Amino acid sequence: MSELKIETWTKAGYELLATDGLSGIKIERLARILSLNKSGFYYYFGTMEGFLKNVLQYHVRMADGVAAEIARCETIDPDLLLLIIRHRTFFLVESQLLVKSNHAHAAHDMDEAGKIIAKELIALWRRIGDIPEEETVVHAYLNIIRHFFYARIDPDNINYKFLHSLAAEMNEVLKQIPTNRHVSSRDAH
């Protein structure tokens, strides 16, 4: 029974994180949404910090599942875009953690989830297109794409039409990068 209650609180917190960021998660608000007593929150999590740690660990577990699905994608459009729509809450949480919130205590879990997803996104990118050989350049490009994507999404626009136009826009930006010579980490010194 307690595992079910912990999961109930955690999922509700995760949904709030997706739409309102870490600062939008309030104990009274969660209790009201769930029609549960605040004392249950304290019983299961002790503090807000303990609860947020639980929510962020849940996010890392979600990253494993999303990454497994990315591994089965054959295309960015439509496969990856439809996956993003299916897992909208996950990607909205990523957006909140990466570009819309400034919470240092979330950094470790955010980085862990990001690495899990990045590994499969890079594998997809290698399967479908021209990708730089230098690993640091690949990660730099992916970081640019992630920030571009996460800065632009919100709960109202995660739909195929918007994501399709965003992917096309990002593709045009990437085409402007010279393909005959990528700057390597050795060139930067």
Task: Describe the structure in your own words.
This protein is an all-alpha fold and about 190 residues long. Helices cover about 75% and strands about 0% of the residues. The chain contains 9 helices and no strands.
Count up the helices.
9
Structural class computed from helices and strand pairing: mainly alpha
Quick one: how many beta strands? 0
Taking all Cα atoms into account, the compactness measure Rg is 19 Å
Shape: elongated
Share of β-strand residues: under 5%
Quote the distance from N terminus to C terminus.
Answer: 58 Å
- Overall residue-averaged pLDDT value: 89
List the helices and strands and how they pair.
Layout: H1 2-20, H2 27-34, H3 38-45, H4 48-70, H5 76-86, H6 88-100, H7 107-128, H8 135-152, H9 160-175
Which properties best describe this structure?
mainly alpha; 189 residues; 9 helices; elongated; 0% strand
Q: How do you describe this structure in short?
A:
The chain is mainly α and 189 residues long. It has 9 helices and no strands.
